[in-house]
Amino acid sequence: MIALSLAEIATVVGGQTYDIPDPAVSVTGSVVRDSREVEPGSLFVAFVGERVDGHDYAADVVAKGAVAVLASRPVGVPAIVVDDVQAALGALARHVVERLGATLVALTGSVGKTSSKDLLAQVLQRKAPTVFTPGSLNNEIGLPLTALSATDETRFLVLEMGARGIGHIQYLTGLTPPKIGLVLNVGTAHIGEFGGREQIAVAKGELVESLPADGAAVLNADDPLVRAMASRTKARVLLFGESDDADVRAENVRLTENGQPAFTLHTPSGCSDVTLRLYGEHHVSNALAAAAVAHELGMSVDEIALALSEAGTLSRWRMEVTERPDGVTVVNDAYNANPESMRAALRALVAMGKGRRTWAVLGHMAELGDEGLAEHDAVGRLAVRLNVSKLVAVGGREASWLQLGAYNEGSWGEESVHVSDAQAAIDLLRSELRAGDVVLVKASRSVGLERVATALLDDAAVSSEGQVSGR
After folding, report:
1. Of 111, 127, 101, which is closest to residue 179 (Cα–Cα)?
2. 3-state secondary structure 302-320
3. How far apart are CA 205 and CA 106, in angstroms?
4. Is 298:123 a contact under the CB 8 Å cutoff?
5. What span, in angstroms and rounded, lies between the C-alpha atoms of 91 and 144?
6. Listed residue (97, 141, 145, 135) closest to 113, CA to CA
7. Which conformational region is residue 186 in: left (phi greater than 0), alpha (psi within -120 to 50 degrees), or beta?
8. pTM of the predicted model, to two decimals?
9. What share of the chain is helix, strand, coil (3-state, %, to 5)?
10. Which of 77, 92, 215, 393 meets the CB 3.0–4.6 Å disulfide criterion with 399?
């Protein structure tokens, strides 16, 4: 964080100082909520959770070098005490970003936020120092913590914004007002909480409504609900996509033998070829989104194309592709799942597995409400239509819907199976995998299917001959 004295911070957040010998002492390190991340000069933010109360760690973090604790009660060590810790954290973030000389870029969408953010950050880092949301810390706590990690040298601050209801993004943009707003798509993630795609569009569009007149709204031309957001902003509109009228678009889209997308990138300043290191055609849209923002910020088409072609995966469990010594390829996409990302992952699996056996190890997609049965059934059916070799549906009721959809679509019989949990899936794969197979693992985060991918890779690591365990 930019250096601020404890007295300044107390004024910004409207707090009272307790047990602080010298209010002129500055926070020069990071602002953190996890006591394990404390370093000399840190400010520790004490939240009260369902299982853990951050105030209980106050003495420990000060002993580790924290300058003070942002707390809701005195803790016997240097502290700034406020009525609402979350509100105080947000106020501090707003104060810091107003002092930065950085351009704030915010992005949202139903699917692809983290992958697009990671691509954009890697592109912009070629131009100037860039700070960006780590992983998917895109809520009312993660976003201000990210903003507070910026320093005086930061020139671009890239912030992912998530929403589970109307008003959430409006709140986040109030903490960190963006100059550029990027909307990727409107899908069905969290549809059970929103009540429909139109309501999701209302929530996502709060981002473009927050933009200043001299800002830019970067919108997906291929998504009608996103394109329609042009009428909700006073900022200039830049369209990206594969549509002919998109300002930044892709032509000649194709997949390499490994399932990696390649295309010709067109921008208002020219065109250049791109071959991504990521897997699956769905990343073309993510790359175009990043390219559009980079173009808006003054990068040339050749700079953008080179940066995209060299960018990798920064966040865990998102289409992480690992080949074992025995030739089994494990695709760990277990961080989260919704209908759109499930379909994209299945198509990527098929593209990667040409001439090989393909396994789709899938679990339930959360927060679909009344659409749950239909959406799980549809994913199971799609696996059949794409000729996935075997579907392994993991879990309870929703997994049974996946398996039933596959069975009804193609009378798969032994080609689809429903197992109770991750361990059962691991046991099945250990007994049936053979060299050259490609295994996709994907479900909502709560299912914990990353355990399946981890087990398969651990098997290879401990096998002295690189053979599949259990054979």
Report:
1. 101
2. HHHHHHHHHCCCCCCCCCE
3. 12
4. no
5. 9
6. 135
7. beta
8. 0.88
9. 40, 20, 40
10. 393
